[in-house]
């Protein structure tokens, strides 16, 4: 409930990476799950892989920034507001204690946090780029924060950690250092062991692609009686599919089914495979029986029920 209250100013979007390729390209999605936080159209942080704790901390940080901005906007828009009053509530003018608390949350937003210029996929200085490459080469999973997105964080973190430059790498909330130190650690041996973090798991090999004809043969033989329809038996999505489902059920037939709307490749391929241009299609023992009209004719002639029951 506290999280819900804190996040009321945020907007959450869930995207299937393969369904919206332009979004995947924009955010350079190479693996899922991936959580990206944006502000003003710019990425300000991300968490790659399944890491609920890091995601929660990153979202809380975003909610805190949004709440601060909302407070500033409200104060500035009120009747009689003065520039001085507005400046006092601007995001960059939060109290030192508030900023310190926010920085503490940010450096603990993930097991490995990188504060850099730009993002992990789009570094905006050569030192940040070098740091990202070192971590990726060592298969170290990390979350990042773009210091260009928040001037208060950019200036405050220098004083907070007594470290004047960027990038800065933190592990378990503790400053490790900049690119020179991390580069030196990587040169001495296994970086994951030195940082005390597990290596990022290697991506699973892509499944071998099964030829379409083999898929279709397997599908028509999945059960002795197979029905290819639009929708499913409990929720047919066309009148012909609904009628044929009713006919089979009235004859007490047990049958498997496949929703052709769920797979365009199967939907088109099965037409050529069986030389039958329409749906639904009924198969028994892997052989095409026909569509609704033929099944109705066979039923009227008393041929269908014996075939269904074998």
TrEMBL record:
Protein known as: Glutaredoxin domain-containing protein
UniProt xrefs under Pfam families: Glutaredoxin
Organism whose genome encodes this protein: Fibrocapsa japonica
GO molecular function annotation: iron-sulfur cluster binding; metal ion binding
Protein's GO biological process: intracellular iron ion homeostasis
PROSITE patterns listed in its UniProt record: GLUTAREDOXIN_2 (PS51354)
Key words of the record: Iron, Iron-sulfur, Metal-binding
One annotated Gene Ontology cellular component of this protein: cytosol
Region feature (Disordered): 70-98
Domain of life according to the entry: Eukaryota
Chain ranges of the Glutaredoxin domain: 112-176, 225-289
Low complexity bias locations: 70-94
